[in-house]
Amino acid sequence: MHILFIFFYLALLVSVLISCCFFQKKCKHLKQLAFQDHITQGFNITAFCQEYEKKVLQSPPHTYTIVFMNMKNFKWINEKYGSSMGDQILINLYHILKSQIGDEEFLCRDNSDCFFLCLKEHDPHTIGQRLSSMIEHMNHYSQKTTFEYTFYLGVYLIDDLTINARIAMDRSRIACYQKEAVNFCYFYKKKLSMRLNKEYELNQLFETSLYNHEFQLYFQPKIKLNDHSIVGLEILVRWQHPSLGMIAPSEFIPLFEKSNKICQLDLFVFEQVCKYLHDCQQKQKPIYPISVNLSRIHFKKSNFLEAFSRIKRKYGIPDKWIEFELTEYTFFDKEQRKAVKDAIDEMHQSGFLCSLDDFGVGFSALALLKDFNIDCIKLDREFFIDIENPKAQTIIAGFITLTKELGIKMVAEGIETANQIEILKHCGCEIVQGYYFARPYPLATLESWLDNFKNQF
Ligand code: C2E
Ligand code: MG
Ligand code: MG
Which of 20, 58, 217, 311 sits at 20 to 30 Å (Cα–Cα) from 417? Predict the structure, then answer.
């Protein structure tokens, strides 16, 4: 009985020991999963953040810097050589980077082809030199593999210890959105963060604002110089937000072009225009042809015109009452040009007119007039700012003759002074748009402006 008891205790002890070993192994494995990157076997993001708290947050500000390294051609490498080769490259790059940093510095791989480094440096020049030497080392290694490694480098010089590692890392990442690189690195600036926050906020507000009709139509008349008749109205959108106030198109159009929301917005504006024209028809009010701005983003989608044509039909809008204004950016992308050419032809078939906006600045080429079936050109206000300049007058007059011979209408944009009007008349210009005659007005103001204008001339 006594021996049996001892035997039982021994068995229990052995099983406890085995479970302990198993548990320890399991813990180690779990720890690895939690803190180790499965490809490089180095730190993962969680471990990086832990290290940040231990090292960076325990040092004075302006001691450390976070660098975000995003490889430029990695997707191509994966595509061409397969993902196991891609993984091997990441492992090698990780080891090269690790060999280039000090004991108090650390790094981790983020998703895919990105690394975060935390360097004990704060001088932009030294940081640039160290990063360039790291990349040199990588490319020295790559000589054996024929790849050339290039990176986007976002740098955040840690100056604020009240933010956590994730935010600091994000700052280095968003530094890459900046336009100019200093010493091939993009340094984080607070202004950029504010801009991105603002962009994020506006993007978030879009749907509700659209639903609540916070986007409002402003109308700017186009005037014929010889008899002061109104030959058309351009629609310019404004965002009247209940708490942010009036937001100008320059603040939200580029942003909505990035997020493709512009297509929804343009369609909304277009439908309001059709409703307005329909209303004028019903109430037998005078009707002016209307032009609406159409973002280049639409042209990425084939058949985008169908939605516009459907709305046009729904409100029974006759042909040639609506013109689309396209900016030169629409024609910039050479691959998109064929689609644009076809879309312009389709616009005509569907009963729309088409004009080329802001012509003459940027990269507008005269060849556009030859290759694209355009009804009207809007010459940019830049041409008329120094209208006293005889060369400017020669160009304007020459351009007017050219468009007349091509049978294309021409509108001078942004006309503000009586002097500009006189010179334009002298150059043979027929139609103008600008503050001299009228600013863009909301509908109610437009209607009273129309009454006054008729009495004035
Ligand atoms: P745009 O189509 O070239 O419109 C002319 C811009 O010049 C308008 O600015 C107008 O307010 C301004 N303007 C008119 N006359 C004068 C003048 O005499 N002097 C000066 N200094 N400016 C004048 P806005 O309304 O801020 O619009 C800016 C741009 O935003 C537009 O340029 C157009 O490209 C875009 N945009 C406006 N509404 C829409 C829209 O509904 N959809 C799209 N996709 N783009 C739009
Ligand atoms: Mg326009
Ligand atoms: Mg314009």
Answer: 217
Host H or E run for residue 237 = strand 230-241
CB of 266 closer than 6 angstroms to any ligand 1 atom: yes
Instruction: Write out residues in the chain with pLDDT < 50, as ranges.
Output: none
Which of 222, 218, 219 lies closest to 409, judged by CA?
A: 222
**Rounded distance, CA 365 to CA 201, Å?**
37
Ligand lying nearest the CA atom of residue 355: 2
Please tell me if the CB atom of residue 42 comes closer than 6 angstroms to any atom of ligand 1. Answer: no
Q: Residue 384 has which token pair?
A: 């008329």
CB 68 within 8 A of CB 154: yes
* 358 C-beta closer than 6 A to ligand 1: yes
Q: Is pTM beyond 0.90 here?
A: no
Asked whether 298 and 264 are in contact (CB, 8 A), the reply is: no
> What distance lies between CA 322 and its chain's CA centroid?
28
Q: Please state, in angstroms and rounded to a whole number, the distance separating the CA atoms of residues 161 and 294.
A: 46
Say which ligand is closest to the CA of 441. Answer: 1
d(CA 360, CA 378): 9
pLDDT at 21: 55
Residue 414 in contact with residue 225, Cβ under 8 Å?
A: no
pLDDT digits (tens, 9 = 90+) for 94-124: 999 999 999 999 999 997 789 999 999 999 9
What's residue 25's pLDDT? 61
